[in-house]
Amino acid sequence: MLTQILTLDATLSNYLRIAEQPGLLRRIAALVAHSGDSWFWLAGLVLVWWRGSLEWKQKAISMGIGILITAALVMALKYTIRRRRPDGKWGEIYRRTDPHSFPSGHAARAAMLAMLATGLGPTWLAAVILVWAPLVGLARVAMGVHYLSDVIGGMLLGLATGLLTLYS
Fold first, then answer.
1. Confidence at residue 24, expressed as pLDDT on a 0 to 100 scale
2. Which tens digit of pLDDT belongs to each residue from 104-153?
3. For FRET with 39, which of 25, 66, 110, 136 sits at 20 to 30 Å CA-CA?
4. What are the residues facing 84 on neighbouring strands?
């Protein structure tokens, strides 16, 4: 049964994959896939904390803490499960520094940020991140660094981490 599920997962993921196809859609997918990088978000949150009002400083701190908690949980699961990433060339930095794919840290981070943006506001930020978050996960599959199940697992973990961060 597990073999059948993993085969279906690989087939669906391969169907969504565009990493080897040149063109505008591939460039957009690569940009969206990178937009979930933790360094990008942490740098942005430091800037918001440095320049923002007290309200925005508090939001930046909550999101930064959420990113760190999510990263710790993702890495613990990755090194416990040790599922290899799909074969491919794109995303060499991810493949070298983190050869494991389940769960997707980018998908977990995006879902966690969407949960926090929904809980902390403002509404416009929540709306933007709620649209962006699933696109990050799909882009990671499209660029061949994750299977679809990695993204689903990451998003579920991210939603749970977001709730934990909001209510603790």
1. 95
2. 999 999 999 999 999 998 999 999 999 999 999 999 999 999 999 999 99
3. 25
4. 100
Domain map (residue ranges) of the chain: 2-166
**C-beta of residue 63 within 8 angstroms of C-beta of residue 114:** no
pLDDT attached to residue 93: 84
Q: Is 82 left (phi over 0), alpha (psi -120 to 50) or beta?
A: left
| Distance of alpha carbon 5 from alpha carbon 33, whole angstroms | 25
CA 134 – CA 40 distance, rounded (Å): 18
The whole-angstrom separation of Cα 87 and Cα 95 is 9
Those residues with Cβ within 8 angstroms of residue 120's Cβ, 6 or more apart along the chain or in another chain: 59, 62, 63, 166
Tokens read off for 76: 């613990």
C-alpha distances in Å from residue 67, one per residue of 25, 96, 161: 28, 21, 9
Rg of the Cα trace of the chain? 16
Residue segments in the chain with a per-residue pLDDT below the cut of 50: none
Q: Show the tokens assigned to 110.
A: 């995006």
